[in-house]
Write a structure and sequence with these properties.
Blueprint: E1 2-5, H1 11-24, H2 33-36, H3 41-52, E2 57-63, E3 72-78, E4 87-95, H4 104-118, E5 123-128, H5 133-141, E6 145-146, E7 156-161
Parallel strand pairs: 4-5
Antiparallel strand pairs: 1-2, 2-3, 3-4, 5-7, 6-7
The structure holds coenzyme A.
Length: 162
């Protein structure tokens, strides 16, 4: 398994895995498949490019043997405020059902956080729905702290210092 940052020309592969993720796990993400499927090629290209270049955003992929499409996706976006923030949000984390429980997600996040350390990120946070026990367990095992929801029944904030 290879874990690496997306390349600027990989918008189609990015679109494919992101749509698969939204279809497979509608409850896990804020974005909806029904909206994502309507996006223009240019919008996917712009997002892939932003994830491929610079020090504020990265999209990482897990890629298996051969010419198969990527099997894992994760992104980190630096907070827009304050400028030069050392905090970022981990989003879009998804691994194909076939590759779960095999350390793929762990490898993917480890590579993304290595990149983040190199770019001066100090804290990474995310939000997980309370029903997503598997993701919560996964993040806790990876050293994330899980906080109580801000509103009753709301998403659980999680964070980790790098
Ligand atoms: C979240 C995700 C990336 C984690 O990857 P993974 O390969 O499934 O993670 P792992 O199998 O390494 O770890 C999951 C842990 O949850 C446990 N687990 C499995 N099913 C569970 C469940 N229903 N409830 C609680 N824990 C569960 C596993 O046993 C494992 O814990 P362990 O290491 O103590 O045994 C993957 O499950 C996924 O893509 N889920 C759908 C999308 C998603 O929820 N993304 C996160 C959005 S915040």
């Amino acid at each position: 398994m290879i874990f690496r940052r997306i390349l600027p020309g990989e918008a189609l592969a990015y679109r494919e895995i992101r749509l698969r993720a939204l279809q497979d796990s509608p409850g896990a993400f804020l974005a909806r498949y029904e909206d994502a499927i309507l996006r223009t090629p240019e919008s996917w290209e712009a997002q892939a490019e932003q994830g491929a270049e610079g020090s504020d955003r990265a999209i990482f992929l897990a890629i298996g043997e051969g010419a198969e499409p990527p099997v894992g996706l994760a992104a980190l976006y630096r907070d827009a405020e304050p400028p030069g923030s050392t905090t970022g949000e981990l989003i879009q984390v998804w691994v194909t059902p076939e590759q779960r429980g095999k350390g793929v997600a762990e490898g993917l996040i480890a590579h993304l956080l290595d990149w983040a350390r190199g770019q001066g990120f100090i804290v990474v946070r995310a939000e997980v729905t309370p029903e997503n026990g598997r993701a919560l367990r996964f993040y806790q095992r990876g050293g994330f702290t899980v906080e109580p929801p801000i509103e009753p029944g709301g998403d659980l904030p999680i964070w980790k210092e790098l």
